[in-house]
Write a structure and sequence with these properties.
Layout: H1 19-22, H2 29-42, E1 53-54, E2 61-68, E3 71-78, E4 84-87, E5 91-95, E6 105-108, E7 112-117
Antiparallel strand pairs: 1-2, 2-3, 3-7, 4-6, 5-7
Length: about 120
Amino acid sequence: MEGGPSWLPQPASWRDLTVAAQTGDPTSTLEFYRSALAVRREHPALGAGRGVEWLDAPEGVLSFRRTCAGSVFVCTVNLTGSPVTLPTPGTLLLASADVTPGADETVVPADATVWWAA
């Protein structure tokens, strides 16, 4: 929808944060959220279910599993300031940073979240 000028001034430094600027940029926050919403719609364990099962994880890392209709989802969040090597729980669905899953272990970057289909 086109309209007149904004009644709230937008700082020039926010220019890269607009929908127009972020659409189609695979590294943008907008496209990351769009990807997360698509995964959420497609993965049964991200719908109705019985809650979460907390998994063992090193200090500074949160990890949980969710199961629904035979589908298993695992979320790993590295809250530390350093990369952490963890067992690879399944197939990579989405990551908030560059992650290359290994057959047995995966390095999860600092301050990153990874979604897995287990």
